[in-house]
Task: inverse folding
């Protein structure tokens, strides 16, 4: 069935580590060969053998309005014809910064980079430069990209592959990353008291998405805000997943909590390689060339990437209805899945925030890393492959969020719910 994908994977493994250019794409946690794709439109992916799938990965987040979204494609084509890069300022970078400020009023200044990793890595440097302190606090299972400081108790591919803390990160770097428990303010308080006046920043995924989707408990984010204020620590929201997804203004708007710095990726580039970090003027003023904290990039603010991101963000800004529709579609899917799993007697907890959703096969409420790990990975694996057979493309790991796109039709959602019923029945037997 995946004949061509399997052949390509064999070739890929000879010359590319693990046959993939990013570990989360490998099927290590579900087994089998990754699917190779050749095209997509809306919510339908077509693999190299011509088989079609309903997509719940959305390139891991960017495709909030579906694949090959016309305004994005048009913007990229028109921009490419004028050159793909200048290494000098362009108008679209200014328009982009202005648009982000309109959508997220707390972002006084923003710097474009090329990935979410770069955004988070730079935000940490800025926080350290601003405070003159070395240590950071992150949360177990949160993922902020693959910069050294973050590969300590990380989520996403690192967790899926069983290496949440990577070899190659020096002890010196590791000692400056302190780890707290997601949704547990006491664990943060303890660290701030133990390392008094040493913590430059707390970085958090405001909705955890890299151990599956885990919403913040009531008061958790505002509690972090208060702790940061009390300890003169910079609060960084890593909104690489949640930015422009859980609402127009991201998690800051959804939960009514302002961060000092915020990082973006995924949607901001509409599927092209983009990240960004921004925030309050007084913090951002330390960034080079205004200030002494160095940060740079040959292709940063690349015209193609800016044109694509600008086209997508403009649509989201002008038509906030997209968020209502996404919310409705995700609730519909949630309810349908819940019914199917109940009918077939599966122990399940489904977490959902906006258009992020995760199915955990466990009897426990999933609120943090430890409870996420109680999910039945073997059951997920069987469920995953049954879904794939029926043309439903989910993230190939129990510890990743699914991302819905507003291109999903009611019929596609119904097909998914039906397929989930069949899949769980067969996985349990
Ligand atoms: N931060 C979060 C919350 C992410 O989910 C990711 C990637 O999935 C990153 C940072 C890293 O972004 P990138 O893969 O673009 O480097």
Result:
């Amino acid at each position: 069935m995946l004949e061509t994908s399997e052949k390509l994977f064999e070739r890929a493994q000879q010359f590319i580590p693990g046959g993939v250019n990013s570990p989360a794409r490998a099927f290590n946690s579900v087994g089998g060969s990754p699917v190779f794709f050749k095209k997509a439109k809306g919510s339908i992916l077509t693999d190299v053998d011509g088989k079609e799938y309903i997509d719940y990965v959305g390139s891991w987040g960017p495709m909030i309005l579906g694949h090959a979204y016309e305004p994005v494609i048009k913007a990229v084509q028109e921009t490419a014809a004028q050159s793909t890069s200048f290494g000098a300022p362009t108008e679209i970078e200014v328009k982009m910064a202005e648009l982000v400020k309109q959508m997220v009023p707390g972002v006084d200044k923003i710097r474009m980079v090329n990935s979410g990793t770069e955004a988070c890595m730079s935000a940490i440097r800025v926080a350290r430069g601003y405070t003159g302190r070395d240590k950071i606090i992150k949360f177990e299972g949160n993922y902020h990209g693959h910069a050294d400081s973050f590969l300590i108790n990380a989520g996403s591919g690192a967790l899926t592959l069983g290496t949440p803390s990577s070899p190659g990160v020096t002890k010196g770097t590791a000692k400056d990353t302190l780890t707290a428990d997601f949704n547990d303010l006491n664990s943060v308080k303890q660290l701030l008291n133990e390392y008094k006046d040493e913590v430059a920043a707390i970085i958090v995924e405001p909705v955890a998405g890299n151990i599956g989707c885990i919403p913040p408990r009531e008061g958790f984010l505002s509690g972090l805000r208060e702790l940061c204020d009390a300890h003169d620590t910079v609060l960084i929201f890593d909104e690489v997943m949640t930015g422009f997804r859980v609402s127009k203004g991201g998690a800051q708007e959804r939960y009514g909590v302002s961060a000092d710095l915020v990082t973006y990726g995924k949607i901001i580039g509409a599927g092209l390689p983009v990240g960004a970090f921004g925030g309050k003027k007084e913090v951002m003023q330390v960034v080079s060339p205004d200030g002494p904290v160095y940060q740079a990039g040959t292709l940063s603010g690349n015209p193609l990437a800016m044109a694509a991101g600008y086209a997508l963000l403009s649509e989201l800004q002008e038509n906030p209805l997209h968020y209502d529709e996404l919310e409705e579609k995700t609730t519909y899917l949630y309810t349908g899945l819940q019914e199917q799993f109940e009918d077939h007697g599966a122990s399940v907890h489904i977490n959902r925030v906006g258009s992020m959703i995760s199915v955990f096969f466990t009897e426990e409420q999933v609120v943090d890393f430890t409870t996420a790990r109680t999910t039945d990975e073997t059951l997920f694996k069987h469920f995953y492959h049954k879904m794939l057979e029926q043309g439903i493309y989910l993230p190939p790991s129990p510890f990743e969020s699914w991302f819905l796109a507003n291109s999903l039709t009611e019929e596609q959602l119904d097909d998914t719910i039906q397929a989930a019923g069949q899949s769980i029945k067969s996985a349990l037997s």
Notes: The chain has a mean pLDDT of 96. Residues 321-343 form the longest helix (23 residues). The radius of gyration is 21 Å.
